[in-house]
Predict the 3D structure of the following.
Amino acid sequence: MIKKGKKLYEGKAKIIYATSDKNLVIQYFKDDATAFNNQKKSTIEGKGVLNNRISEHILSNLSQIGIKNHLVKRLNMREQIIKLVEIIPIEFIVRNVASGSITKRLGIEDGTVLKEPLLEYCLKDDALGDPLIAEEHIYAFDWANKKEIEKVKKMILRINDFMIGMFRGIGIKLIDFKLEFGRIKINGKTEVILADEISPDTCRLWDSITDKKLDKDRFRKDLGDLIPAYTEVAKRLGILHEQSNVTAVNVTKLSSVKKKNK
């Protein structure tokens, strides 16, 4: 039986706790919503529950196609047991369609379909605003080596192909998403595996027909109805049946949360 220990780290959307096994930690999904490098903040009840379920579903499916990741198992509504990894301090942004910061930076029209996936790197540093960096910066400052980045790039292409197909099958366009990777010792060798979460907090997801946003842009752009949008993603993925009553409660509470945040 794994026992929960002290808090090791608290980020914008998750808390990491130690466990009785030094190789495993517990990841707790918070209801906090943040945007624009933490300048916009709110609490949206039920968000953590949905992200926990959606991320578990996607990471479990990625495991089945050979993408090693940190997920061991979901513990409950808000927590997962995950492998303790040394996070590479890079956010890997995968873009299939231009939206968000790239449209402002480069003057590209929102919704422009890219000829092939575009990979961007950002340094994971909130104090600096997660600045965009080149691959050369990664090597110059020893954040990762060439072998690790080459492996990560191959994994990213497979992850992107898989997720495009998975979401297309449920009527959703995968616009872009953020990935993180970490180092772990396996049989005495250091390996790089997928870490963090994959959820509507870390992906841009648009309805295939209407282009309705089903992701955190609903919070960033004050579109409202974030919980119904995340719930829609979970329902289409077929993972909500056992907790539909909980989600219904969260949806009814959303109006009071929105009033509080105005």
In short: The two ends are 44 Å apart (CA to CA).
